[in-house]
Amino acid sequence: MSRGQLRTPLCELLGxxxxxxxxxxxxxxxxxxxxxxxxAGGFGMLGMVREPPELIAxxxxxxxxxxxxxxxxxxxxxxxxxxxxxxxxxxxxxxRVPAMCFFWDVVPEAxxxxxxxxxxxxxxxxxxxxxxxxxxxxxxxxxxxGVEAGGHVHGRAGALVLVEEVARAxxxxxxxxGGFASxxxxxxxxxxxxxxxHCGTAFLATRESxxxxxxxxxxxxxxxxxxxxxxxFSLNWPPGAPVRVIRNALTxxxxxxxxxxxxxxxxxxxxxxxDGRPILRYSTDSPLRTTTGDLxxxxxxxxxxxxxxxxxxxxxxxxxxIMAEAEAxxxxxxxxGGRDERP
Length: 343
Hints:
The protein is about 35% helix and about 15% strand. It is built from 12 helices and 14 strands. It has helices at about 10-15, 30-40, 55-65, 80-95, 110-115, 130-135, 160-170, 185-190, 200-205, 215-220, 250-255, 315-340; strands spanning about 20, 45, 70-75, 100-105, 120-125, 140-145, 150, 175, 195-200, 225-230, 245, 270-275, 275-280, 290-295. The strands form 3 sheets. It has an 8-stranded parallel β-sheet. Helix 5 (about 110-115) links the parallel strand 4 (about 100-105) and strand 5. Helix 8 (about 185-190) packs across helix 12 (about 315-340). The two termini are about 20 Å apart.
């Protein structure tokens, strides 16, 4: 693998300089983060899950006020009321955003609307079957998420196997997600057949992230084994939608019973508020800059890659570090290959 291969065909397709995509984390990925990533040569995404169309329009304008680079808006059809989803799509398409990113169940109608409006469509998937469904629906890029990922986790296979499995089965560009936060993991993803990496935890822990400082500190202190996969935090989402979070008093209290928590069986107790909106215990709301209340009882989303994150740089510094580490990883591989050469 040569250093020139760090710039993959995906970069040309998306209009970015480096094959590093920032996850469209709901609440966390606002204009400041998406624009910072895009401005630094990566590909930024607005996380606009179940947000009012007026907010989405403001955030799109705010990104464009900061950068002229391409970006995407991330929506979750399966976790959004159909009327709100239609209004969200109307807003994005009227604003002529360059790309849309969808996640969870493949909804062909949403993909078709975006494609018909001239958008590139990225679809995050967690199984080979979902990848095939997204390709059939017309997606342009597949973001393949391993079980190591933070936040909502669609599948159960590790990224090391799943990324290669999907890359073998599709001609579409594949992006590796779940545990990718370093230059070495970027090189590994390319070796698996991916054309880039999709980072959530790495960008949550940046200065531009809209996550609360409490959440960021928890990520910096966490190791991979401090995270758990559970459906305990399930209000606001369909049943059976697990998340990876940093363990807290709530997850410790349920012991080994990490699954089987139906949203309708969880008590609707207000524990915090965000910009005047009540936040319920067991909801999927993570603490944001504007959140007040019992932050320790809220889910602190993080993937296994938290174990690699020990600083809080700008998004541009995070991207520069990943690329420098990738160059160093390639140099190590070159050195290993040189030792095997014969005259």
